Amino acid sequence: MLYIIRHGKTDWNNLWKIQGRTDIPLNEEGRTMAEKAAEEYKDINFDIAFSSPLIRARETAEILLKGRDIPIINDDRLMEMSFGAYEGFEKCFDSPNCPLNVFFKTPEKYVVPVEGAESMEELFKRTGEFLKEKVEPELAAGKDVLIVGHGAMNSSIVCQVKKMPLKDFWSAGIENCKLMRLI
Fold it and tell me: Left, alpha or beta for 16 (phi > 0: left; psi -120 to 50: alpha)?
């Protein structure tokens, strides 16, 4: 089986700030969410876990799997999508001129990334390589795999695994600390 989960909440989540690759830690609410997820999912088998190296995902993985003999492997390809100059931008949805609104509302039209940001093509390339190189062999060996990541990065994996069109990029509804079974 393949499972995916998004990190717990951070102060920036609560402020509606674009995080991207900015390395923001979990807040107390996020830690509590991860603890509740650990209890809720304690009976689900994971043989191996892969995590984004960003602290909010790593800490979520550590809390979620505490006391279980499950290796957690960090992989840079699981970092959140880079939003370049717009990382730290607050309340993008409230700003009609924010170019990231295209990404969040009509992702299939997000062709040219904002200044210094990652393109959808780059995101899908790195997460696709990760799936092929790391996840597929583990699944072929009959192992249960967990990926601990981020909203956009997780959505790219969901789209690839479920062969969903780009227009449905956000349709899975990647909530904080909610486990999703993909395969």
Answer: left
Closest by CA to 122, choosing from 162, 84, 170, 175, is 84
Residue type, 154: N
What residues contact 118, with CB distance under 8 A and at least 6 apart?
81, 82, 83, 84
113 pLDDT more than 90? no
Distance CA 31, CA 7 (A): 9
The C-alpha atoms of residue 88 and residue 178 are separated, in whole angstroms, by 24
Is 133 tagged catalytic? no
Helix (H) or strand (E) holding 122: helix 120-130
Are 131 and 157 spatial neighbours (Cβ–Cβ below 8 Å)? yes
Candidate list 7, 59, 87, 150, residue with the active-site label: 7
Per residue in 69-95, pLDDT (tens digit) is 999 999 999 999 999 999 999 988 788
Kindly report, residue by residue over 7-44, the tens digit of the pLDDT. Answer: 999 999 999 999 999 999 999 999 999 999 999 999 99
7 labelled catalytic: yes
Q: What is the dihedral of CA 162, 160, 36, 43, to 10 degrees?
A: 60
What's the rounded mean pLDDT across residues 138-151? 98
Selected catalytic residue, list 28, 62, 80, 133 = 80
The angle at the Cα of 106, spanning 100 to 110, to the nearest 5 degrees, equals: 55
